[in-house]
Amino acid sequence: MSNIGIFEFQGKKYEFPVEIGTENEIAIDIKKLRGSTGGIITLDPGFKNTGSCKSKITFLNGEKGILRHRGYAIEDLAKKASFLEVAYLIIFGELPNKKQLEKFENDIKEKSLVDEEIKDILDGFPRSAHPMGVLSALTASLTAFHSHLTDVHSEEEIYSSITRLMGKFPVLAAWAHAKNEGTPLNYADNSLDYIDNLLMMMYKIPTTPYKGNPVIKKAMEELLILHQDHEQNCSTSTVRLVGSSHASLFASISAGVSALWGPLHGGANQAVIEMLEAIKEDGGDVEKFINKAKDKNDPFRLMGFGHRVYKNFDPRALIIKESADAVLAELGVDDPTLEIAKHLEETALKDPYFVEKKLFPNVDFYSGIIYRALGIPVEMFTVMFAIGRLPGWIAQWREMRLNSEPIGRPRQLYIGETKRDYVPMSKR
Ligand code: SDX
Q1: Which of 414, 405, 413, 415 is closest to 51 using CA atoms?
Q2: What is the side-by-side strand order in the sheet with 12-20?
């Protein structure tokens, strides 16, 4: 049986091929829709029903709460693999053997020194600058300091871009944090692994010897693995769209950082804590805020609840929730804001509005709680998300470029004024 979809309109029938993916998802290929129908297009604001590409990187099933990278379950990867092992898998398609992982790690370490002149750009920011804005700008500045990599076409050139970005991005993120804290800038220490190095750069100060905490490191590595890729979310679609014009990897990732910043997307982890603080300041009446979230006339939404795709539960949230409980117990954290979070979670999960609309805590609800318990400033929460998401953005950009996908250019349905004549000023 051929997979054909038929569209009938105004007495005419149009046939379109139907593609079936390896997980039996079904897609109507409408590449020829406009041409074969004399101009008909589809309309799907927010693209909830529209596939932008075919991809081999991540499969997620929102109804069943399934998330796999290159066929491997997120539950296994988060618990059994290292951050760079998962990054290698997501970017290149296979779990690395020992030799491949060592080479990838060493190539990244070799590129972890950041050009000193980037400090001049950092100095230009006010101390209060949000680190996501600083990170986006400093990432874009790599196009100037590595201009030979702004126009890449070979796999070797793309690999060189990738290892440079993987090496420098955590440094730029730590420098954005240091700007806010007023502390000296730390350089990468290549004797440390990727996560230890990141934590050292964020926390080390000259007056006291830096000592890592294995509990914090384990929680951070698991958290960042869980964030690595999530198919065509808002920021990843941004990276693909910008990259489709053949803009450089650095420029495309800078755009992805900006898209992730929004409170409806990656900025939700910061918005979760700000919401919890607001509830605490307001007297801690969780019910009052749940009723505000349910009130259609009130723009307030429960940050950290709901998801564009997951309509039952976010598998990452289940893994993080377990980790959050362990970290809070291990670190002996006794934080009234986190008590409000637990009360909010329990109440919302029983409330018919949230149950019926399947609005459950998402990855950002629990990651905000862990980051706070780890002592990370709230402005840095989304920066941590960006560090986690970097391998996924890179993988999706690389797949799009190696597949020579066309430049993205959606159409629109025009609903404005029809033709009218110019009115001279004297007659307005
Ligand atoms: C991330 O796409 C990804 O993969 C993203 C991400 C990734 O890894 O890249 O998973 C990361 O961005 C997670 C989401 C973080 N955002 C938040 O926590 C912000 C709060 N959540 C909402 O803004 C909202 O849930 C969205 C934006 C996440 C999803 O919005 P949708 O697609 O509009 O949600 P929906 O269609 O499922 O909404 C169904 C109903 C609507 O009401 P009705 O129109 O049916 O009456 O539920 C309501 C919504 O108004 N609703 C909420 C709500 N989220 C949805 N009501 C109150 N509080 C909420 N949080």
Answers
A1: 405
A2: 4-9, 12-20, 26-28
| Ligand 1 centroid to residue 304 C-alpha, Å | 8
Token duo for residue 56: 């081999």
Indicate if ligand 1 lies below 6 Å from the C-beta of 269: no
Question: What confidence tens digit (pLDDT) does each residue in 171-202 have?
Answer: 999 999 999 999 999 999 999 999 999 999 99
Q: What positions carry a catalytic annotation?
A: 307, 364
User: From the CA of 222, how far away is ligand 1's center (Å)?
Assistant: 24
Arithmetic mean of pLDDT, 363-388: 92
Neighbours of 282 (CB within 10 A): 10
Question: Helix or strand or coil: residue 12?
Answer: strand
- Say what the pLDDT of residue 38 is: 94
Report which of 214, 198, 205, 209 is spatially closest to residue 182, judged by C-alpha positions.
205
**N residues, the chain:** 428
pTM: 0.94
The encoded tokens of residue 105 equal 């790690």
Q: Which is it for strands 66-69 and 58-61: parallel, antiparallel or unpaired?
A: antiparallel
CA distance 334 to 59: 38
Choose among 176, 173, 201: nearest CA to 187.
201
- Is beta strand 58-61 parallel, antiparallel or unpaired with respect to 26-28? unpaired
- Write the DSSP symbol of residue 427: G
